Amino acid sequence: MKFIKSPLIAIAALSLLGLVFDFSVNAYFQLILLFALVNCLLSMSLNLVNGYTGQFSLGHAGFMAIGAYFSAYANTHWDLLPPSLQAVEFFIWAGCAGLVAAGAGFLVGLPSLRLKGDYLAIVTLGFGEIIRVALLNMDFLGGPRGYSNIPGFSSFLFSFIFASLWLVICFFTIWRVMHSTYGRGFLSVREDEIAAEAMGINTTRMKVRAFVLSSFFAGVAGSLFSHFTNFISPSSFTFLQSVNAVIMVVLGGMGSMTGSVVAAVFITVLPEALRPLQEITGVDLRMVIYSLSLVLVMILRPKGLFGDLEITDVWRKYVRRSA
Questions:
Q1: Between the N and C ends of the chain, which has fewer C-beta atoms within 10 Å?
Q2: Residue 72 falls within a domain, yes or no?
Q3: Cα–Cα distance between 51 and 42 in angstroms, integer?
């Protein structure tokens, strides 16, 4: 299980996987795989707030929209580097998109994270809708028509490696943070906020830090989404997108990075895998089966697919013991 501890091995393994997909699947499935990587990044970022810190945010689509629109506008209007260094420019603007989203996360989180539970969910939900409505009225960003002609990647393999790089950065950043002093602070807020305050932990500051870091990677996910689709509009970042991210976190397991990745892939691929049923039966049963699958999983695994365990914990607990 060394790949889980080494970013370079993880990037190499994902690059090899991308090379296999480049030759083995068609363009339609390749696009689904890219969307799965975006959802993995989005769910892991939200897991930091909802899973590890114990808050309940419903505004992640807003941060994703900020990152998507900033990156789209920057890549179409500001040329930093020559075309031969387009990959570096994409990476720079994706990072800047994350920073802009993190700044928005700080401005929203500083006053709102003093709230708890349902009140925080309502505030973050309102923020996401404010961003969407604001984008509808910004003509220089396309308004309700959307923003088109966004530069894309030259090939699927390049897109897959680029997204995998950010996925690995997100995974190992959150992994290292959660095994540091800050991570212990996040967990203490989740377990008992009053006890954490009694021990001298500034719980509001901890929640804001988690919120800002989470917003950063949500902005990066939005940047990747804009370049994969080459077109974005406010309707791409509705309330349902935030709910979808919450479903991924809960389904995978609150506080499990591995669970977030597995659930994101499952939720992205399952509706498309069921699409041929419509041709066979003549009725679109995709969402019925999709919803029923979610209900069954939550009944059978109420703590999610992985609970609060990571793949290394599963390996030690089940595979090693059986061996």
A1: C
A2: yes
A3: 13
Number of domain units in the chain: 1
C-beta separation of 195 from 212 below 8 A? no
In a domain, 246, yes or no: no
Of the candidates 279, 237, 194, 214, the one whose C-alpha atom is nearest the C-alpha of residue 68 is 237
* CB half-sphere exposure, 179, CA atoms < 13 A: 7
* C-alpha dihedral, 274 to 279 to 282 to 286, nearest 10°: 10
**Domain around 9:** 2-238
Residue 321 — pLDDT band, cuts 50, 70, 90?
A: low
Q: What is the dihedral of CA 313, 317, 318, 322, to 10 degrees?
A: 140
- The predicted-structure confidence for 268-307, as pLDDT tens digits, reads as follows 988 888 788 777 777 767 777 778 887 888 888 888 888 7
The continuous run of DSSP H or E covering 160 comes out as helix 156-178
3-state class (DSSP) for residue 309:
coil
CA 105/CA 217 separation, integer angstroms: 11
